[in-house]
Design goal:
This protein is of the alpha/beta class. The protein is built from 16 helices and 14 strands. The structure holds pyridoxal-5'-phosphate (PLP).
Length: 502
């Protein structure tokens, strides 16, 4: 089970164990965790944080290298919730008192549609080329389909080119590959926080690349502003702060639609952020893994690939996968699109270790080319189911008086449970998280996303209604229907902000 990290040479303080789930990954206590390790006199944590380079914690093993111990430590410490869940998974018949997982960002609503489509006879082909070593960028027939698919769904001004596509086994591998080929060990990416926390490991475990957090908060500071808003000013401040500490920042990671906030950047915002990156010569890695999971019509998503002109095409790299939009996180298919041929080649070289089976490549090409099924069957039904599940959970939260943010995209609601903490600390947040787990409902706490305000939790709603209902009942039992502290602080959104921001 969870082991507290063993402190090594630097005598840094430990911090409470994490509340992560599989898609969140490492959290508080990681060797990269600035909040645990930063010295008191190193100031502006308010504005940014820099993960430590050499992981200062590692698990003991006489068999492993120091790197191996760090890698193992991530596993030992980071996924308590997820592992507990797998030992006691809820099953309506076999384990009705098991844990309901509202923590892992997976779409479990469309298995019926997917299994029917993937079981059709056109999905299986066995021919020599599919059983032999492939072009490591991916089979040409698949890269062609991916280029057509992304051109259509990202609404690109001109058709995308197959030679700028690389396919591999998911976005996690792509983060790892991009970090390795774009940065030197010890360099960093800027990332707005809260963010999908597993990126910490993705960029670190092989690439030894760190993250510089651009902290966002829930305060609304004026007209036309919204909670957890990213601005160029905040990016500039974090970049300056990192530079002043001698950390070389090589790029910016943008997740759009966002995880865990569910927000969507407007075209204006995207252009500003890309302009900022260009001014500083930074790469931009844009993760659009939820791009087809926008289920509210009022929420308008624009892919970065739809922009007429990218400020710095050679430094703009876009990723997508079927893990979320097609509810196939276990299939492991992801793709990179970039104009930069050096990046294509370098990532392709790493695909020798992250490649897809030829049979799966064939299956994916068949799926992505079936525009009729995607447009007429899958997407409308998926969106309707996401919307119904979202409506159910948001109504439950409203009835409980729990404020939350949600923007009609992604699988989750960002719930403000600060009023249920006796004091605003991550220790208290952890206690609440554990009370949920003890009551057999797994959530993700804000700390796992490097949220700087204790008390935020992410609730995943993309699950079948019987599990969702039971999960929400258990959630409600823990909160007891009543806050432990009377009033919500003034920065807390009184209700869900309408539609998309920006
Ligand atoms: C924003 C984001 N990017 C990437 C991933 C990982 O994607 P994959 O399963 O394709 O590796 C996740 C998983 O939760 C995610 O939320």
């Amino acid at each position: 089970m969870f082991t507290h990290p063993k402190k090594e040479s630097r005598g840094l303080p430990t911090c409470p164990s994490p509340a992560p789930t599989q898609d969140v990954g490492s959290s508080c206590g990681s060797g990269l965790d600035e909040e645990c390790s930063r010295k008191a006199d190193q100031k502006p944590l308010e504005l940014y944080g820099v993960g430590e380079l050499p992981a200062v914690f590692s698990s003991d093993s006489p068999y492993l290298s120091s790197r191996g111990r760090i890698v193992k430590w991530f596993w030992d410490s980071a996924e308590e919730g997820y592992r507990t869940y797998h030992m006691d998974e809820y099953d309506e018949v076999k384990n009705p008192t098991g844990i309901i997982n509202l923590g892992t960002s997976e779409n479990k609503l469309c298995f019926d549609l997917l299994s029917r489509r993937l079981s059709q006879s056109d999905m299986l082909r066995v021919e020599p080329s599919l059983l032999q070593y492939p072009d490591w960028r991916g089979h040409p027939f698949l890269r062609e389909e991916v280029a057509k698919f992304l051109s259509f769904y990202c609404k690109t001004p001109v058709p995308l080119k197959p030679e700028k596509v690389v396919v591999l086994n998911g976005c996690a591998s792509l983060f790892s590959a991009l970090a390795t080929v774009l940065c030197e060990a010890g360099e960093a990416f800027l990332i707005p926080a809260p963010y999908y926390g597993a990126i910490t490991q993705h960029v670190y475990l092989y690439g030894c690349v760190r993250l510089v957090y651009v902290y966002l908060d829930s305060a609304v500071t004026g007209l036309d502003t919204y909670p957890f808003q990213l601005t160029v000013e905040k990016l500039e401040m974090a970049l300056q702060g990192a530079n002043s500490e001698g950390v070389t920042v090589k790029g910016l990671i943008l997740i759009n639609p966002q995880n865990p906030l569910g927000g969507i950047y407007s075209v204006g915002e995207l252009q500003e952020f890309l302009g900022f990156a260009k001014r500083h010569g930074l790469h931009v890695v844009v993760d659009e893994v939820y791009m087809l999971s926008v289920f509210e019509e009022s929420a308008k998503f624009r892919s970065v690939l739809s922009l007429d002109r990218l400020p710095d095409p050679q430094r703009t790299h876009v990723m997508w996968a079927t893990s979320k939009d097609f509810g196939m996180s276990g299939l492991r298919f992801g793709t990179l699109y970039t104009d930069n041929q050096d990046v294509v080649t370098a990532v392709a070289s790493l695909c020798r270790y992250h490649g897809l089976s030829g049979l799966v490549q064939y299956q994916m090409a068949q799926l992505l080319r079936d525009r009729d099924w995607i447009n007429q069957v899958y997407l409308p039904e998926n969106h309707a189911r996401l919307k119904a599940a979202h409506t159910y959970v948001s109504e439950e939260l409203r009835a409980l008086g729990v404020p939350f943010l949600s923007h009609g995209a992604g699988f989750f609601i960002w719930a403000d449970l600060r009023k249920y903490l006796r004091e605003g600390t991550f220790e208290e947040e952890m206690l609440l998280w554990r009370r949920f787990l003890n009551n057999k409902v797994l959530l993700s706490s804000g700390k796992a996303f490097k949220c700087k305000e204790p008390g935020w939790f992410r609730l995943v709603f993309s699950d079948q209604s019987h599990r969702l209902r039971l999960g929400m009942q258990r959630f409600q039992q823990v909160l007891g229907g009543k806050p432990q502290v009377a009033e919500c602080p003034s920065s807390c959104p009184k209700q869900e902000p309408s539609g998309q921001h920006g």
